[in-house]
Structures are given as structure tokens and as C-alpha cells.
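pasting for the record
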Amino acid sequence: MPRIGELVAPRRMGRDFRWLLASSWTSNVGDGVALAAAPLLIASMTSSPILVAAGAILQFLPWLVFGLHAGAIADRFDRRRLVMVANAARGLVLLALCAFLVTGVANIWIVLAAAFLYGTAEVFVDTAGSTLLPMLLKPADLGLGNARLQAGFLVANQFAGPPLGAFLFAAGHAWPFLLEAVCVGLAVVLISRIARTPVPPRAASGSGTEATAPVPGAAKVHTDIAEGLRWLWRNPPVRMLVLIILLFNVTWAAPWGVLVLYATEHLHMGAVGYGMLTTASAAGGLLATVSFGWLERHVSFAAMMRVCLSLEVVMHLAFALTAQGWIALLIMVVFGFYAFVWGTISTTVRQRLVPHELQGRVSSVNSVGVFGGMVIGQALGGVIAQAWGLTAPWWFAFAGAALTLLFVWRPISQIVSARPVLDEVQANEP
């Protein structure tokens, strides 16, 4: 029987991957604690729906403001060190918030400011961190590597973290944020053990993959951003992948923005039932982590991507039609399963196709599309639900996702069959 460590992170993937995995999992514990504690803290300070909503908006607003810049900066500097610095900044924000809470001077405006600063630092952590995996693993191992990172997110961020955060908040408002600061600090220590990962030299040209590695101080950040956008526009497979993610996030976010009202008023599940929906989704994701290795060996990426997007269409229709809470829970398990598979595959395909020196910029464009789609979708969902009822956003999502699926069905094969840029570089080497 192989050891647990060998099953989770095989030796062939290297020690640096294990340090990255440990750092990511540790950080996710802290983020999961805040997932429950932060809304509780805001709600304890104000009953204003606008201010409570502002706390949620500040989770993705920094992505829209700083996302592209974070990508350009990640492609300029040592990415490992950038993650360490940005995580250290998150830790300082958390320690300052703890100090305000312990001394009793904290108010809603201080908390919202801390949320924005923390979210801004998180943009740089996530953007630079997403570029490390393809620099540490061979292309064939990227699928398994992304699956292991996603598994840590599900277990630590979705399962273990929130209940622990709620428990600590009940013991004292500062405790969950102090634990989060400890987790972030430990994540810095763990990722510091990774060997230095400099930005690679100029990539070989071919099929629109030519790019120049930016040199710190040699050009303005907006010039680097423009270069990344030009490369993305001239690379049809990656461009289409980013577009798919944007469109499906618009349709997904429309009903998700009013999910709490749908669960409590339409399904009559109550607050506990609403929480169970999230848990059911995470359970489906955990099932996918166990199955992903087998799926990757026996099913093509193109087939899995089509199945996942088809299930997305069916899910919206099922939610629009059901009025039973237990059926909704089953649907959420299926959603968690295919959402995990889709997220792992789409990230892996993108990482294989993008040159190392452009990973930060292309990843940031993808993230801006994700959060931009969420903003658009949630705004549409609120208006649609207000005008036509709580099931109307699901019908909108069903129609929009079905039309999008028809549009992207054939290009999926082109995305998956595109030649990995690493192979092109090796082919051009003398």
C-alpha cells in the first residue's frame, strides 16, 4: 500500500509541489474561517442591507480594479516572492483588525476598509500563485496538481473552515481573524521553502505564442497588460476558453445571487437548509477529487468539458422546475461534482497553452472575466427575480447556458487539441 503522502502528492511531482500544496491548504483553512466570521462580524455591527451587501461586493471588487495589474506584476517579478509579500500584507491587515477589535475601537467602516485591503492583497496572492504550478510540474501532471489544490480548497475552505470560524466568533470576535493571520503567516513560511522561480526567458515563437518576458523597470505596467491582451486575442483556443468562462459565469451568477431567497422562500428550506445547499455542493466536489484521476485516464478532456457544460444547462432547468428541498440538495451534489471537474480541466488546459512569462497576465484576464461575469449576472438576476419571481433567474440561466453551449460545442475540440506551448518551445530548441 502506498503511503498517504505518495497518494496525495506523488514523489515524481517533486518536493517543491508539496511545499506549494501545503502552503495552499494552510491558507485555505484561514480563508474558510473568514468565510463565516467576516459576514458575522459585519452583521454584528450594522443592520443596513446596503452595508452588509458592501461586505460581499468587496470580495470581488479588487479583482475588477487591480486584476490586470496583478497579472502584469506577476509576470515581472519572482512569483514565489510576490506571493510571500502579498500574503504578509494580508497578515498585517488581519493583525491590525484584531487590534481594533480587542481595543473596542473597531466600527463598520474600519471593517469594510480592512476587507478591501485584504481583498486587494488576495488578488496578488491568487494571481501570482496560479502561475507557480505550471513552473513546477510537467504538463502531464498539471491535471493532478490542480485537482490536489482544488481538493484542499474544498476541504479547508468549504468544509472545515466555516464551522470553525463561526465557533471562534462566538468565543470572541477577534479569535477567528487571529487564527487566519496565523494560517497566512504559516503559508508564507511554507512557500518560502520552494526553490526560487524566476520568470523564464523569451519563449520560442510559433502559432502566435511569441512573447517577450518583461524586465522590471523596462516598461510600464500598462504596456505589459496590453501585450498580454494582444497575445490572448491572437490565440483563438485560449481566447475562446476565457470567453466560455465569462459567459457561463454570467448565466451561473444570475440565480446564484438570489439563491438565499430561492432556498428560504421558494423551497421553504430555512436558514439551515440554505447552508446545507453549500455543503452539498462541497460534498459533490469531494467526490470529484476521488474520481478525477480515473476520469483523466479514461475520458478525454474535450468529452468531459462538454459533459460539464451540458450538466450546467440541465442543472438550471432542474432548479427552475423543482419545488422540493431534497431534490435541490441532490442537484447541488451533482453541481459540486462537475464544477470541480470543469474548474480543474479549464485551468489545466489554460496553463498548458500559455507561455510561462504570460501566465500571470492571462490568468488575471481570466479572473477578471470570472468576477466581471459574476457582477453582471448577479445584477441581472436581481432585476429578473424582482420582476418575474424567484424561479425566473433559473429560466434565464437555462436559456443563456443552452445557447452558449451550442456556440462553443465545436470550438471545445480545438481548445483541447491545441498544441501545448511547452511542446512548441521544445520543438524549436536546437
